[in-house]
Amino acid sequence: MDLAAADRAHLWHPFTQQRGWCAEEPLIVESAEGTDLIGVDGRRYIDGVSSLWCNVHGHRHPRIDAAVREQLDRVAHSTMLGLSHPSAIELARRLVEVAPHGLTRVFYSDSGSTATEIALKMAFQYWRQAGEDRTTFVCLRDAYHGDTIGSVSAGGIDLFHSLYRPLLFPTLKAEPGDLGEMERLLAGHAGEVAAVVLEPLVQGAAGMLVHPEGYLRGVRELCDRHDVLLIADEVATGFGRTGRMFACEHEGVTPDLMCVAKGITGGYLPLAATLTSERVYEGFLGEFEELRTFFHGHTYTGNPLACAAALATLDVFEEERTLDALQAKIELLGELLEPLAAHPGVEEVRRRGFMTGIQLRTAPPELRMGHRVTLEARRRGAIVRPLGDVVVLMPPLSISTADLERLVEITFASVDAATAAEALQQAA
Predict the structure, then answer these.
(1) Is the dihedral of CA 161, 164, 166, 170 positive or negative?
(2) d(CA 255, CA 248)
(3) Which CATH number fits domain 3-57+321-427: 3.30.420.10, 3.90.1150.10, 3.40.190.10, 3.30.230.80?
(4) What whole-number distance in Å separates Cα of residue 329 and Cα of residue 321?
(5) What's the pTM?
(6) Tens digit of pLDDT for each residue in 190-249?
(7) Closest C-alpha to 363, from 383, 344, 338
């Protein structure tokens, strides 16, 4: 079978203009090993974006592979509507252990978007059942929380969201990092706001925008002062990406609801969770006829295979002391990025932990500079991903120092080649 032809004939790729896709030769990944992806032609590529920010301990990790195989010998799937199973129970217990203190309940779903959607619905229903009609959410400008309608309503990236505005519910948008504006919004809409929704420390899809130190803690204090729930979207920042298990830990913050996905299974299977405080959970307790139940669920909620992979992922964090080993690599990454930050084709390098956004110098949109860098990196043996003209580096936490050095070297050379090509094109 001609795989490239079949792809062009039948597949519709996410966040992809298919006309441009069909004009290029696709990279088709057949297998993987460690932190490498391997194409059908046998070429190896450093997975510089952790297969969209979800691979944590590397591909085909023997500990996680074994856990999934063992679970297959028991049961691959069983609904959690009216039933339970050991893997979901144990994972919920383990998540509560590693989460910020005070988060005690776990509601499973299957993606970051659904985890956020659940948090929004929980916050709205919590206040309704408390006798208050709070229908407003405060979100951050340039936020991204997923692609379902509620999550898009909480988002703030016009490129992704503006087209769907007629379908969305209105939200209040706060300037990231501006506590004064957050205070004014909460004070000006007292009794209306159900929750503040934010990505703690780093707004990933916005291009790795890093919040000023103390902002997260300040928002938590404002939420407490105005009796508003805080929803922390840790889908991208969770499971070690900022150097700690969860970004909220850096400022000692416990949100009322926390959304996790991506790295929860080590990048193996779709799984997400919305963690809540006991206060939120108890707001849904009552007699059956009171209809205080949270009427929400998914067919694959708490899938046993995914839960088994997630449990093994947490085991590897402990057994390999992943977060301890990561600190030296975070420091090394900062050193390696210094020459890139000084490159004439780079405007700024933004970073927190292992999350890096390389802002390229402004160029005409039709030049697609971020995409050019991606193609140049692929030719040199690495996979990176652009967000417009921001090139993202977010390798698996397990990447070796040698491969980390090579990844940054490839990125530098790719920026160099792409910007040189731009200069030649403009000169012509």
Answers:
(1) negative
(2) 8
(3) 3.90.1150.10
(4) 13
(5) 0.96
(6) 999 999 999 999 999 999 999 999 999 999 999 999 999 999 999 999 999 999 999 999
(7) 344
